[in-house]
TrEMBL record:
Alphabetized UniProt keyword annotations: Dioxygenase, Iron, Metal-binding, Oxidoreductase
Stated name of the protein: TauD/TfdA-like domain-containing protein
Molecular function via GO: 2-oxoglutarate-dependent dioxygenase activity; metal ion binding
GO CC entries: cytoplasm
Pfam families registered for this protein in UniProt: TauD
Biased segments, Polar residues type: 1-11
Amino acid sequence: MSSTTVITPGTITREKKENGDPLYPDYMPFYDPLEKVEDIGAFEHFDPGHRADPKLPNLLKNATKVWDLSPHVGTEVHGVQLSQLDSAGLDEIALLAAQRGALVFRDQDFVNIGFEAQKKLVSHFGPLHIHGWAPHPAAGSEEHMIIYDHKE
């Protein structure tokens, strides 16, 4: 029997493998109290949204459903895998985020693409910040982990 992650609006159930191990052991939190984190320091930032096509053709070409969560803030987009977007599509995310304030993209494949691909994707928007006080996967301190598990 294979393990699955079931996501229903409002609930998250994380099943474990038959042997009780977590589905994604590489993502389990690790904390080293002796770890030193250097400040990112000052940097020049250019908002990638300035390069975006305002019609959002790269971002929305595979979208199956797009709707505003409220009249002024928030948009939910279905059918788009962020990991599959090119640079122009990521620029369009930056523009839409600036316009709408909050974006929701469900059913993403981040957990399966690995840490390096995740870091490459989010680095498109600017330098990564390391949360020195927060647990992270042993393989990467740029990752910020939130593990939710509950007993039924």
